Amino acid sequence: MTSSTRPSEPANDERQVALITGGSRGIGRAIAQMLSDQGFAVVINYAGNESAAKETVEAIEASGGCAEAIQADIADAEAVARLFACTFERFGRLDVVVNSAGMMQMAEMTTDNVEVLDRTLATNLRGSWLVLAKAAETLTAGGRIIALTSSVIGKSFPGYGAYIASKAGVEGLVRVLANELRGCEITVNAVAPGPVATELFFNGKSEETVQKIAAMSPLERLGKPEEIAGAVAFLAGPQGAWINGQILRANGGMV
Prior knowledge:
Layout: E1 17-21, H1 26-37, E2 41-46, H2 50-62, E3 67-71, H3 77-91, E4 96-99, H4 114-138, E5 144-148, H5 161-180, E6 187-193, H6 199-202, H7 207-214, H8 225-236, E7 247-250
Parallel strand pairs: 1-2, 1-4, 2-3, 4-5, 5-6, 6-7
Helix pairs in contact: 1-8, 3-4, 4-5
């Protein structure tokens, strides 16, 4: 990948810009807020929940930050291209890309459930390929690419087959892309959360199930969205400059 395909180097005195896919809720929203608190202008990508995206933008602006919401389905190559183009049109630069968008649908490994696999791979794996690839084509020296995977890969729970397959694939993409960007001074890493107290996690689970999962960690609790955001912010900040091609498992010791 040559520098001739990349935009001009941004001016050093401009505010850095971070794009967070799936940034309107849960972990993605916490990442957007934390990066904003650290001085980034943030682009909140969302697929369909416009009201949640607007609420996130308003919350960031209320705390003195700068944010913009842009709709795009990350599984659609044209939509991803538009997302990056709109980011540059609005801010004129892009320094950090965090791919937090994803889906999780439980289904046992049966022939009747293959459509669950297809849908999950389309968003989680194809979407990651498109976002990470576009980031690699766009970012300049010093850029950071960060994907969200999952520590559930290390547990192999029944019903998680499609989700685990997609996230294992994402971890493979991260390592390959880090090597493909040799010489570009762009890092590529992933954060793999354990169970985190979000609306998505609690949906459909009994209190007994929640407590059982929380107890799997030696810390005997669920993670907080802000704790995952902290791991992402570390990789996006100056302290993470020497971390590359790594999977940071933020799970309280669950695996």
